[in-house]
Amino acid sequence: MSVALSEQQTLEGEFILARPGEPIVNITAFTARQKVSGYVGDQISHLMGGDEPTLIWARNRVVWRVPLILTFPSRGVVGTVGFLDVDARTGQLMIPTDFSKQVEIHAQALTTDSPS
Prior knowledge:
Radius of gyration: 19 Å
Order of helices and strands: HEEEEEH
Low-confidence stretches: none
Number of helices: 2
Distance between the termini: 80 Å
Number of strands: 5
Helix content: 25-40%
Mean pLDDT: 87
Structural class: alpha+beta
Largest sheet: 5 strands, antiparallel
Strand content: 25-35%
Shape: elongated
């Protein structure tokens, strides 16, 4: 009696994160944070930058989720105004279409609510 094994390597609820020879992460947390800080500083405000990233599974890929913080020279960190994902394999910024607007709204709310 012969038994044929299926090509399926995963069970229900599991998924393949990487195949042999395929890196899971090419981009470090430091690089992801630099990319986000550079983009936000150039495109939105020099008073914003990336904070410590978290490696997560989102949108069917491994990404660094980088919190965006608003800072004032006179007060330091005011708070978090959003998050930006960086593909951990390619380093591509995953920028939502309304990203800048949402960050500006959150920043405005933080500055309105916080004491001077």
